Fold Acyl-CoA dehydrogenase family protein.
Amino acid sequence: MALRLPPRTRLGNDMRFQLDPATAAFRDEVGAHLRKVLTPETEERIYRSGVAHDDDFAKGLVGEHYFAPDWPEEFGGQNRNAWDAQVLKEQMMRFDAPVYLSETTRMVASIIHQVGTPTMKDRILAGAMRGDITIALGFTEPECGSDVAAAATKAVREGDDWVINGSKMFTTNGHIADYIFLLARTNPDKPKHKGLTMFLVPCSAEGFAAQAVWTLSGERTNITFYSDVRIGDEWRIGEVDGGWQVLGLSLQDEHASGWGPHLARLLYHAEQWAATPSEPGGATPIETQDVRRRISRVAMELEVSMLLQRRCVWMVEEGQVPVAEGPMSKVFSTEALERASQDIVELVGPDALRSYLEPTAPENGRFDHTLRFALGTTIYAGTSEVQRTIIAQRGLGLPR
């Protein structure tokens, strides 16, 4: 029996995802800003630190109203639509801008805006939108991997307070953030999805600690520890034991991520390399059929990646939720990036493994860095296995 997607995912033959002139102009405006502020010195400092955040850069986004353009003006936004927000994300990826902490802050701020108490909204939202407050994510645990619902970090109620004990893995930027958006188990007697609660834990709280963990790409992430961390109930987000529903608001956003712009950057550098003679007056690599074939394959996978992501944006604009379409975008684009980076490194040869900041490295070492970076993207925001499970169960209606 043939499997069919739900009718809402089938697009008419005349459906297109070209940008309208206003959105294209906004994209170019953002690109001009990034070219101006992401100087070689800034890029080198970020690369050497391994930290995808820069306070001055983030404040610059706020100043230009690029931090959350689709938010209301009262929060520093521009009331822009989902397409404008999408091209902003694409440009940030395309330029490899240090925005991860800004993105997680904005994501949690959106959740607080939806389900937070008035007190928490007053305390967090304005500062987060000004770039004065930063929030990192505390979901994954050392023994749980992608099974976020198996969290063992405990939060025990003591009067009006909660006492938290446990640890979280891959808490990227947890060493510089102001808060951790933390998933904790509050009822061990309930099924694992139903005994969880979300908290916003101040990193200044006694008993909190962050320890560096370095990834293959040179990025610093963290394991964070919570040793009798005591916080008031005002730091709880959502209902007690209702954390899975709150978490779902963030996971849906993460699962709908697209990584096509990283492919676009790789394609650009591959084309630049292919158009440059290996020696003065010599032939260029692009004249070789195999080079053209491999670069064309990257271009085709980039096109598919961008279309899958833009389908998600179109669905949001139409009032639909890209439950399965988001994971489709994520799993295809990250696996395409992994395939393409390996293929281009093989094409360029041993010189492609010269690292960033190495003077003799082709294209300033972007091939080496993209290869190492790509290997982690199939894990970020849910592994490919998790994404395929969502597609199978919630998109195709297959049994568990």
Strands lie at 135-138, 154-158, 161-168, 179-185, 196-202, 208-214, 220-232, 236-237. The radius of gyration is 22 Å.
